[in-house]
Amino acid sequence: MSQTMKAVGLYRYLPIDQPESLLDLEVEKPSPSGRDLLVRVKAISVNPVDVKVRAPKSKTETEPKILGWDVAGVVEQVGADCTLFQPGDEVYYAGSLIRQGGNSEFHLVDERIVGKKPASLDFAASAALPLTSITAWEGLFERLGISATDKDDNAGKTLLIVGAAGGVGSIASQLAKFAGLTVIGTASRSESAEWAKGMGADYIISHYQDFVPQLKQLGLAQVDYIFCLNSTERHWKNMAEAIAPQGKICSIVETDEQLDLTLLKNKSATFAWEFMFTRSMFQTPDMIEQHNLLNEVAKLIDSGIIRSTMTKKLEPINAANLRKAHAMLETGRTVGKIVLENF
């Protein structure tokens, strides 16, 4: 006899103020096979990707669509081919965009994109971390090619983080500081500027003003690296002017307009995209790197080098609280991460 579980999902893509935009559901409890883990979900976090996927569109679903790409929980069962985890292990992960999300009592996830939960954090604080940590780590250490371990190599190098107070910026600032870089963050409000400084930014500039004059006031002619976490097209000209010759720019924000890559030509500057779902979406041979980096982040957390970015916690995990969390995210003014705990 099949068992059921609680979940929050949707059939129609609606504005968040409509009750049917996210619904409390009972769905079939899945079983793991292959390299999948069945995880008992303890806490989840919301991200801009949840809002993007849920955004109003005419499409309707025959089976409920479950969102949620930040989970902390306990391994309940393992598939036959699993080698990294066993039942009872405490884990955290972001999951895959091409599978059901984690807003359910139990969730299937490939073990190669799962990390051991930081031992020093509870489930709620841990759930704030996976998606933003993977994005920040891949952006800095893989796309931008910054060394994660050689502080001497990074000494004197500068990183500009556009949108430093958000979820990814909060982790990227901490990782970059640990790696030995000088971090300049952009923020638009005093509250977000204070938060970004608390997360490790050495300096704050405004992303509503030209970058170069502000950098010059800090004694910097240009920056070696730029990590763009906010409106790529709006900041494109500013980034092209601020990047050093042979510097590198990475963005996580898709554009509505064409980017003029010619602006980077004379500087031989590099531009790269970072999308943390690439590995799981295309089942790349190096998928296990997300398992490895989540374990590294957990070690940094447990060593007191990085801290969780949870700023708000809602309980329990249900449609009403998830609608509330989505509405807060849609204001574009949230600082840190919103977490939901317990079904």
What's the short version?
The protein has 343 residues and is an alpha/beta fold. It has 2 domains: 4-129 and 278-341, Quinone Oxidoreductase, Chain A, domain 1 (Alpha-Beta Complex), CATH 3.90.180.10; 133-273, NAD(P)-binding Rossmann-like Domain (Rossmann fold).
Describe this structure in words.
This is Zinc-type alcohol dehydrogenase-like protein. It holds the Pfam family ADH_zinc_N_2. Residues 20-340 form the Enoyl reductase (ER) domain. With 343 residues, this protein is of the alpha/beta class. The chain has two domains: 4-129 and 278-341, Medium-chain alcohol dehydrogenases, catalytic domain (Quinone Oxidoreductase, Chain A, domain 1, Alpha-Beta Complex), CATH 3.90.180; 133-273, Rossmann fold (3-Layer(aba) Sandwich). The protein contains eleven helices and 16 strands. Strands 3, 5, 6, 7, 8, 15 and 16 form a seven-stranded mixed beta sheet that branches. The chain has a six-stranded parallel beta sheet with strand order 11-10-9-12-13-14, sandwiched between helices. The chain is globular, with a radius of gyration of 20 Å. 48% of the residues are buried.
Q: Tell me the CATH architecture of the largest domain.
A: Alpha-Beta Complex
Number of strands: 16
Oligomer: single chain
Strand content: 25-35%
Look at the structure and give the CATH class of the largest domain.
Answer: Alpha Beta
Elements, N to C (H/E): EEEHEEEEEHHHEHEHEHEHEEHHEHE
The low-confidence runs, each spanning 5 or more residues with pLDDT under 50, are none
